[in-house]
Design brief:
Length: about 100
């Protein structure tokens, strides 16, 4: 049996900021840990496509880790419709606290 990988769970921060971009790079920066993003899955997929990143997103399941190299996502939907990166919207700011409570 393979040893359990330690879990690194991180919120994506402000949806219009750089946080989602940084979270998407976790699997390449820390391949030895189980990387979990607490964020809106569609937001991460859109940002990965915009940045040209080939990131495997997997649904987070506590009892079933995704393969090494994948970014697991604990999906918490955005409170407001998504806007492009850098487009500040007050309703989107409610995501950071909601993601933290997860």
């Amino acid at each position: 049996m393979m040893p359990k990988r330690p879990v690194l769970a991180v919120t994506a921060g402000e949806p219009a900021g750089i946080g989602p971009d940084l979270v998407l790079r976790l699997p390449e920066l820390a391949p030895e840990v189980r990387c979990v993003a607490i964020a809106d899955r569609a937001l991460l997929a859109d940002r990965a496509a915009a940045l040209g990143l080939d990131v495997r997103l997997a649904d987070y399941r506590r009892d079933r880790p995704a393969p090494a190299g994948a970014l697991e996502v604990l999906h918490v939907p955005l409170a407001a419709r998504r806007k492009p990166a850098g487009w500040i919207r007050p309703m989107a700011a409610t995501c950071s606290p909601r993601w933290t409570r997860r």
